[in-house]
Amino acid sequence: MDREALQERYGIIGESTAIKQVIDKIMQISKTDITVLLQGESGVGKDVTARAIHSLSKRNRNNLVIVNCGAIPEGIIESELFGHEKGSFTGAHEARKGYFEKADGGTIFLDEIGDTPKNIQVKLLRVLESGEFFRVGSSKMFTADVRVIAATNQDLWELVQDGKFREDLYYRLDTVKIKLPPLRDRQDDIIPIFRKFVTEFSSKYDSVFQGFSDEAKDLLISYRWPGNIRELRNVAEQLVVLEKSQFIDKDRLQKYLKGRQHLGSTDNLPVLSRKEFTDDEDDDFESGSGTDMGIIYRALLEMQGDISDLKKMLAKFVYSSFSDKELKALPSAVPRDIDPNDISGHIYRDSSDKDSLGISTPAEPQEDEDHDIIQDFFSDKEIPSIEEAEKFLIEQALKRFEGNRRKASDALGVSERTLYRKLDQYDLQ
């Protein structure tokens, strides 16, 4: 089965590079029994991916058992997963098979695996490694031949660092990881997916969808979609049912793009790609005119937090080569007679570094090579993105400290846990 046939069979729509990579990995691992970890935000289609993997596997004639670990109360999750014997607890009127027994010969999909209690994680590790488990209230060992697919919308390694998830179980689950991209990173796929949903709901509710304007189309693409495909599906259904036979314009569509409305949230703001900023728009931006001003302003607000973190990281990294005494001697403001566009820096060691006229002289950088590298990187014609700058600083910190992550995280002004997460995000070794 080729990629196009697989997408058509399981309703996975999209031509973006990100979704093609997901499909290719599904085809690559489906015929094996290897454990798979699906990672992605809520609503990106982890359950659809699990079904596709099972259906393409040699186990497809047996059960696919879907378990939402986060929805099962802690007091009964062991019984649900591994079963129980009659009389093992109040209300256990008869013996009962657990999900692993029901999935014997097939596949078990453990959704929201990060919410599993730690006492259950030990037993999950045992059944993953040997297929052995005990029912609640029984001393008899049971076995199950099960292929495990796990899914999470959390950072499992961060949970490991916080002591909430077992490290040995993490490595056992993280054999093959498939990262499912959020919808905002698949902008080219939004309209085709939306049209599919509209067609389905129009048929289901015997309704006619009259289409939408170009402005509404642009809004669909630029919206952040915090709920991902699940939210897009809900919006399509609402439009078909509540706006029956109505042509959808931007204002009409806006009513259904709610996002998360808590204070400070930017999830309902549009996403702008860098290609949207062209030289032709520079004049409009400077004069305050143009229809994109509102969108650009919102995007700048959204970037504010990331830029603040990046500035702290950059400052911490640049100044890490200076002693505490030298840092205390830094001036609180740049003198007026110094060109603010001169990025070579006017860093003063202490008050003793003055010439005979009492004028402070710049200190020699202790790390000339690092200084030149950073200056060259940020002096390129094209301004780097937040992600590019962050990746660059992490690489330079690791290089300076010869791979010592603790020292690198201290120099960058972030926790070691955050650094590990960034290394995984940018696929850095």
Structural features, described:
- The protein has 429 residues and is an alpha/beta fold.
- It folds into three domains: 3-181, Rossmann fold (3-Layer(aba) Sandwich); 184-254, Orthogonal Bundle (Helicase, Ruva Protein, domain 3); 312-425, no CATH class.
- Helix content is 46%, strand content 7%.
- It contains 19 helices and seven strands.
- The strands form two sheets. A five-stranded parallel sheet has the order 2-3-6-1-7. Strands 4-5 form a two-stranded antiparallel sheet.
- A hairpin with a 6-residue loop joins strand 4 (132-134) and strand 5.
- Helix 9 packs across helix 11.
- Residues 260-269, 272-295 and 330-367 have low confidence and may be disordered.
- Residues 340-368 are annotated as: Disordered.
- Keywords: ATP-binding, DNA-binding, Nucleotide-binding, Transcription, Transcription regulation.
- Residues 12-241 form the Sigma-54 factor interaction domain.
Percent range for β-strand residues: 5-15%
Coarse morphology: globular
Look at the structure and name the CATH superfamily of the largest domain. P-loop containing nucleotide triphosphate hydrolases
**Main sheet strand line-up:** 2-3-6-1-7
Rg for CA atoms: 28 Å
CATH topology of the largest domain: Rossmann fold
Question: How many extended strands?
Answer: 7
Which percent bin holds the helix content? 40-55%
| Element-by-element helix/strand order | HHEHEHHEHEEEHHEHHHHHHHHHHH
**Contiguous uncertain segments of 5+ residues:** 260-269, 272-295, 330-367
**Major β-sheet, in short?**
5 strands, parallel
Query: What is the level-2 CATH architecture name of the largest domain?
Result: 3-Layer(aba) Sandwich
Structural class: alpha/beta
CATH class category label of the largest domain: Alpha Beta
